[in-house]
Input
Amino acid sequence: MGMTTEPERHEDELRYLVGALREHLGWQEACGGYGLPEAPPQKRQETALSDEVDPQASTVAPARGMTGARPDARPAAAQPPSLQQPVSQPPPKPSAQPQQRRVRRAVEPAEQRTKRLAELEAKAKACARCPLHKSRKNVVYGVGPVDVDILIAGEGPGAEEDAQGEPFVGKAGKLLDKMLAAMGYDRGQVYIANIVKCRPPENRTPDVDEMDACIPYLHEQIDLVRPKVIIAMGSTAVRGLLGVSGVTRIRGRWKLYDAEIPVMPTFHPAYLLRNEGAKRDVWNDLKAVLKHLQREIPTRKR
Output
């Protein structure tokens, strides 16, 4: 098929762990704690016995597992009950994680899936799961048929999308149409959707809670549309679908959604409007999609 997927790199996992550790340390400091959790009684007894066996152990600085005040700190005042929490409490999640289901529905007839997409759209139009519903003009659900080669996943609606209720209809949408035409497709032959269905104020990036509240709709859309390939356009789409922050370092590298559908991460058309030089990179990514789909690269008209 011409496609190879790459497992998540160790750097990606390390970056996540470092972020989680920073969150945890910040939470500890806010609660007046310092160090790591104290060892349980049995472990402390084992440590004491080891000290008796090794005379030099008593001269070693306190172990990392000990808790207490900083060496240069004054005795801590009693903390309010709201801050008296165990240090072992898990830290807040540092980033949005993909909420992918491991059990997929049996394939239904196309007519039935089209009907269910319409039902889901009606549900989304009445949605109030996050604060974005308060300022929207229209819910921008998604457009396109089922059983497509390609599903385009973007970030969220802009001003024109919010006004018209359709994704990718502004300047970035016109560029997307040109990109699809260069691949030999038109808008009606692909499915287009976003991570969030309501416009964030001032076109800001959706926050984690907004993404987590809205992305189940996209998971349902993917289940019902059943695309052969997903093109994740921009950092928000990559983060929502793959749980990875940043698109630059994984752009052009095949990934898998739900361990099944190939995903090509690439730049968002809005980014290309500001960075003309990145168009060549995106075209290379789109050519890789065509190769995977075993389609010829159309000859450009002169």
